[in-house]
Amino acid sequence: MAIDPHKDFGPQALQQLDITEILKVILSQMQSISSALGEHERDQVSVTSRLDSLDEKISDIKKLLTNHITDPRDGVISRVEVHDRYISQLQKEEIIEKVKSMKSYLGGIQKALWLVFAGLVGLAFKVLFY
After folding, report:
1. 46-68: per-residue pLDDT in tens?
2. Domain check: are 42 and 87 in the same one?
3. What pTM, to 2 d.p., does this model score?
4. In a designed cystine with 21, which of 17, 100, 115, 124 is the match (CB 3.0 to 4.6 A)?
5. CB of 1 within 8 A of CB of 23?
6. How far apart are CA 36 and CA 109, in angstroms?
7. Domain range spanning residue 106?
C-alpha cells in the first residue's frame, strides 16, 4: 500500500496502518519539517547579512554627514559662522541700513517716474484726440 506523506493522518487512520508504514509516515513528516527549517535558516542568514551590510552603509552615511557638517573648512557650521561674521561686520559699518534707505529712495523715484509717464501719456491723448 502506497502512503502519501502529505496526507493528514489522524489517530484512527494510524491505527489501520502497520508499524513500518507508520514509521515511513513519521520519517517523511520529519524530512519535510527538516527541509522547511533549513530554508528558514538560510533565509535568516540572508536577512542577517543584509542587515549587517545595511548597518555598515548607515554608519558610512553617518560619518559622511558628520564630516559634512563639522568640517572646519567647508562644513555647514563653519559656513554659518563665516556668514554671521560677515553680517555682523556689515552691521558695524551700517551698510545694511544704507542699503535699506537706498531701496526706499529708489522706490520713491520709481513712483515719481510713473507719475511723469502717466502725465505724458495723458497729455499725448489730449493733444491727439481733443
Report:
1. 778 888 888 888 888 888 888 88
2. yes
3. 0.38
4. 17
5. no
6. 85
7. 94-130
